[in-house]
Amino acid sequence: MIPEHHSQLESAVKNRKIYQKFVKDLKKKPPRDLDEIIHAMHDEAFQNIDCLQCGNCCRALGPRLSDRDITALAKHLRISPGNFTAQHLCLDDDRDYVFTKMPCLFLDADNYCQVYKNRPKACGEYPHMLEARMHQFLNLALKNAEMCPAVAYVLEKLLQKFDYNPKL
Fold this sequence. Notes:
Number of domains: 2
Largest sheet: 2 strands, antiparallel
Number of strands: 2
Radius of gyration: 17 Å
Mean pLDDT: 94
Oligomer: single chain
Strand order of the largest sheet: 1-2
Number of helices: 9
């Protein structure tokens, strides 16, 4: 991971309580244009952040896999969905299929995804900052900020935009 990415993640850990209070306050009365604000900040973040220099999500976060994801990944490996499930998946506490081991079995040493075109939907949507009704995803953003430098970047920019200085 490049130093700027690491410092953004350290900042997210250091500012965890501020981010939590900010999100709590923001959810009470989100501005009407919150989606547009966050989406623009997301795009700005990814002009400066290269996922291939990080790969934290693929090393530590296991996506929830749908039946469609399982079928596509099994087809890629040329095995049956049942064999793919038996060999690589388990049920989590929510009864969702997830990988049995991390890092992701499809992650190359250079952080490229071996199945990028067939990656699980959850991987394609990560870090979930382009959703509609972003105020409903702010708690997820809090969790992801300590894993994804782009989310940490967005939260920091939101603090600045709203000139947020809480008294903790």
